[in-house]
Structures are given as C-alpha cells and as structure tokens.
Amino acid sequence: MDKMQRPAAHAEQRKNNYARQELTYQLQPRFDGQFSTYGIDPKRRKPSGTKAAIIREKGVNGDREMAYSLYLAGFDVKDVHMTDLVSGREDLSDVNMIAFVGGFSNSDVLGSAKGWAGAFLYNPKAKAALDNFYARKDTLSLGVCNGCQLMMELGLVYPEWKDHPKMHHNGSGKYESNFINITIPKTNSVMLHTFEGARLGVWVAHGEGRFKLPSDKSKFQVAGFYSHQEYPGNPNDSDFAVAALTSNDGRHLAIMPHLERSLFPWNWAYYAKGRKSDQVSPWIEAFTNALDWVKERNKR
C-alpha cells in the first residue's frame, strides 16, 4: 500500500528506517520542566506590557496554540487577521513580536502560502505594515509550518538575496504528519540560541516543507536540523536535513516543525523517561527567550 501511495523508494526507506531512527533526547542545560524557572504564571491575568501579535489568514488553524505559547511566556497577545491589516485597522506599530501561524491558509489551493503572501504583496496597507515592522530594530518574527512557507515566499529571512529560497513539495509527494527528532546546532537565533546541542521531539504536519538551498552553506543560518538525514526522519527530503532557518541577525525564525504544538509533556508522542514532574516541555524556552530579548531592548 505504501508503494502505491508514494514513490517506491520512499516506501522502501520507511520500511528500512522506521525501526532504527530512534527518538532520543538531549535537553538543553537550563531546562528543568518547571514554570517557576521561567517566571511563568499560567493563571496570569494582568498585562505585562510586552505585546506580540498572532498573524492569521482564513484557513489557518495554529493560532490558539501559538497565542497560548506566547501568553505563557509573558507576552500580551493580540489577534490580527489579514483583514485587519488590509483595512488598516492594525499596523503592527505597537507590537514587538509577530507570529505567522500554521495551518492551511486559503485551503492551500495555490500551495505553499502563495495566496497568503499575495494578501501582503498586493494590498498597500498590509504591505506597509509588514515593511515598517521589519524595518524596526526592536522586533522579532516567527513563522511555523504555513507561516514558515509565508516567510520564505515573501523573502523575509534573507531580504538581501535576489533568489530567496522557497518551500517545495515533500519528496514523498505526500502530506507528512509525524513526531520526530530535531537537533539544534550553535545558532544566533534569538529564540533558539540557548538550545545548542539539544535534541528534542516535535510534531511535523505539512505537504510542502522541503528546503531547497544553495550548496554554499555559508549563505544561510541553520537553526535546526532533522536528527536523521533520511526519510522519514527527514520527512520532506530537505537539503542538509534543514528544519529551520534564521536571519543573519537571529531575529527572524522560519521553522517547519510545530514547536507550539509540542509545548507540554502530554503533547509529545513519547516524552523523556524519568521526567514525570515536568509541567512544560523544553520548547517553552524558545518563547521565554523571545520575551527576554524584547524586554532587554525596551530598557534601552
């Protein structure tokens, strides 16, 4: 059946690799699984004064998980739909972080967030809001899954590139949903710089998550690798097994795996042994890193 549904070579790879591509974990040094370590109050009701915005388009479905992740970290989170930007009701001038969420914008009819990108490119108010946000030096952005596709489509990670890479169909030709390992290298990413050497579990769920990148690795900053080079551990056949890219200054992160859907131990398909007291998963640190960075900039 697998050979009938996808290229035979990928079916063979799955057969050969599924039992030997183990889920193993190496947690980052600071992580102890407790809310208190990160200054988190899960029942917080008072505003913190540090604002983030969820950017969503019709059809996306990752907005609530992302909003909760940012809220737990300490952001005051506002919901911004593309109609708000197109009409001028929102201009992002009062927020320091934006998150383009995952899902299926415009039902993915045009593929790889192209329709969503068009809403920015061909609406002057939305485009001005985005351009002004990225021109500031006190801002961060995160794009996950469909949002990662959007950032790549708009050239937001490496705006200086004339041939900015875009996302491509998975090598299997199929939508891939799986719980896999991702390894974080040394990186200047604001959100992931404290994760160096960590190997974590995370969900993937996408049909067009393949990074096709230039052979000269020095041109881009990798913020995450799939821990296994071959399919299905590398679920989309991305070049160099890349799972995430960050901008040269580390402020903007485009990542295919759903860190916001892997935020708690019970979210993981398999969690690290001997950690039954953990209140939160290692991924919370990415969001608290973002908050700490913004708060430090606001002091200046």
Features:
300 residues; two-stranded antiparallel sheet; globular
What does this molecule look like?
Helix 3 crosses helix 8 and helix 5 (114-121) crosses helix 7. The chain has a nine-stranded mixed beta sheet with strand order 2-1-3-4-11-10-9-6-7. Strands 5-8 form a two-stranded antiparallel ribbon. The mean pLDDT is 95. It has eight helices and eleven strands. The protein has 300 residues and is an alpha/beta fold. It has helices spanning 2-5, 8-17, 63-73, 82-87, 114-121, 124-135, 146-154, 284-299; strands spanning 51-56, 76-81, 97-100, 140-144, 167-168, 176-183, 199-206, 210-211, 221-226, 242-246, 252-255.
Rg measurement, Å: 19 Å
In total, how many beta strands? Answer: 11
Poorly predicted runs of 5 or more residues: none
Q: How do the SSEs run, as a string of H and E? A: HHEHEHEHHEHEEEEEEEH
Estimated share of beta-strand residues:
15-25%
Overall pLDDT: 95
Query: Major β-sheet, in short?
Result: 9 strands, mixed
Side by side, the strands of the main sheet go 2-1-3-4-11-10-9-6-7
Query: Helical percent range?
Result: 25-40%
Question: Terminal Cα separation, in Å?
Answer: 60 Å
